[in-house]
Write a structure and sequence with these properties.
Elements: E1 2-6, H1 11-26, E2 30-35, H2 40-45, E3 49-52, H3 56-64, H4 71-98, E4 103-106, H5 111-120, E5 124-128, H6 150-179, H7 188-191, E6 198-200, E7 217-219, H8 235-242, E8 248-250, H9 260-273, E9 277-280, E10 295-298, H10 303-306, E11 312-315, H11 319-328, E12 331-334, H12 341-351, E13 354-356, H13 364-376, H14 378-388, H15 396-412
Parallel strand pairs: 1-2, 1-4, 2-3, 4-5, 5-6, 6-7, 8-9, 8-11, 9-10, 11-12, 12-13
């Protein structure tokens, strides 16, 4: 069986899809992986057939714009940034379909794949990495700007979909669909749940299934895939970890180049608490020029190797970072900015394993108090230990690959 796995986004979306690509390949399938060229090196290092969706320059333009982290502007910014790549996504599916039957797998922004499904009759599955993108009237996800009882949040959702989301997506997609002789699309946030199947890379204990979720939805588990994990920790990381107490780890997100205030607060909190710290970012210009004793910066360290040796994790609330901290059994402080991050913060708080701080309140003093409270709490430690026990078997990607296989076989009948 041949799969075309295509996705848009940052590492939190790309790495799970790449992990699934590798899992399907290891099960004997032919797989093509497509995403922005920024991740081309990672894909090629792992030996997968790679198709670029957009250039490194386009990726840089997307992450350089602060609108990426502004809740009211983030969706429009992301969609407008990826629009040039959507037609290429369609073409990739068309080119491979000519050579024989394929099944597409894409994330919620994969409208090029969805158009290919409707025009070329190619089965396409939706892969959701985060529960925030699946609306439920019964148990709504925690989204920025939403408040009040469930009925009010549903009204806010419908207003947002009608006046903020559909006007961004539908004009472009429907003009394209009209060119191809296809009927128009509406209700964007429902349309990204493919009629062919929806596979979710998060467990039911993290996001319990709801009666009004898509009937064709399958939940598996967190993928927990990291680049370069097989190589182990570098010598300088090992030396630091072995040189003192377990540090607090900090990152505002792999694609966040606007993290100066975040890292200033992180360094200040470590100094106030007399704790060691690890600052993670690919953009060293965001890190304070002078760091307190015991605080270091690394460009990248695989979280699955680093976090089990950390005391706590302070981050932006992306689903990848959140799940890695849950698996490591350490407390979290989340500073949500946009996208699914508010929902993940709410779920972490409900599990009793962490807290959140709004971006405007994210200061060294406030962060130090939050960390001090979490690290001193026996209740939080017990909750972290209990949640980590749920990761005794880490088979999210193999379960997802099996679910994809089974669904693809059903569609082929």
């Amino acid at each position: 069986m041949k799969f075309v796995c295509s996705t848009f986004g940052s590492a939190g979306d790309v790495f799970p899809m790449l992990g699934l690509t590798l899992a399907l390949r290891d099960r004997g399938h032919e797989v093509v992986f497509a995403t922005n060229e920024h991740y081309g090196g990672v894909a090629r290092r792992n030996g997968v057939a790679f198709e670029p969706l957009g250039t490194e320059e386009q990726f840089a333009a997307t992450v350089n714009d602060p609108d990426l982290w502004r809740p009211r502007r983030a969706f429009r910014h992301v969609f407008e940034s990826l629009r040039p790549a959507l037609r290429r996504q369609y073409e990739i599916h068309a080119e491979h379909a000519v050579r024989g039957p394929i099944v597409g797998i894409t994330n919620c922004f994969g409208f090029g794949a969805f158009v290919a499904r409707d025009k070329l009759h190619i089965p396409v599955l939706t892969l959701h990495c985060q529960p925030a993108v699946i609306w439920s009237r019964e148990r709504p996800p925690a989204l920025p700007g939403f408040f009040g009882p469930r009925w009010l949040r549903h009204i806010i959702y419908r207003i947002g979909e009608r006046f903020m989301v559909d006007p961004v997506v539908c004009p472009f997609v429907n003009a394209w669909r009209a060119e191809l002789g296809l009927p128009p699309m509406s209700r964007t946030m429902q349309a990204w749940n493919s009629p062919d199947g929806v596979v979710c890379l998060f467990p039911d204990w993290y996001a319990p299934p709801q009666r009004d979720w898509p009937a064709n939805l399958i939940q598996t588990d967190f993928p927990l895939w990291n680049d370069q994990s097989a190589a182990g920790l570098s010598a300088d990381v090992e030396k630091f970890l072995n040189g003192g107490t377990a540090p607090v780890v900090f990152t505002p997100g792999s694609a966040n180049i606007h993290g100066k205030e975040f890292f200033a607060a992180a360094a200040g909190a470590c100094e106030r608490l007399n704790r060691r710290g690890v600052l993670l970012t690919e953009f060293p210009e965001q890190v304070p020029a002078k760091l307190p004793a015991g605080v270091v910066h690394f460009r990248y360290v695989p979280l699955d190797l680093l976090l089990p040796r950390a005391a706590a994790f302070v981050h932006h609330g992306g689903i990848g970072s959140t799940s890695q901290a849950l698996a490591a059994g350490i407390s979290q402080v989340i500073m949500p900015l946009a996208h699914d991050q508010f929902d993940n913060a709410a779920r972490v708080e409900k599990l009793g394993v962490g807290s959140s701080i709004g971006v405007k309140q994210f200061t060294a003093a406030r962060l130090a108090r939050s960390l001090d409270s979490l690290l001193a709490s026996e209740r939080v430690a017990a909750a972290c230990h209990e949640v980590a026990g749920r990761f005794a078997v880490r088979d999210g990607l193999s379960r997802a690959a099996l679910a994809v296989e089974q669904r693809a076989a059903q569609l082929a009948k």
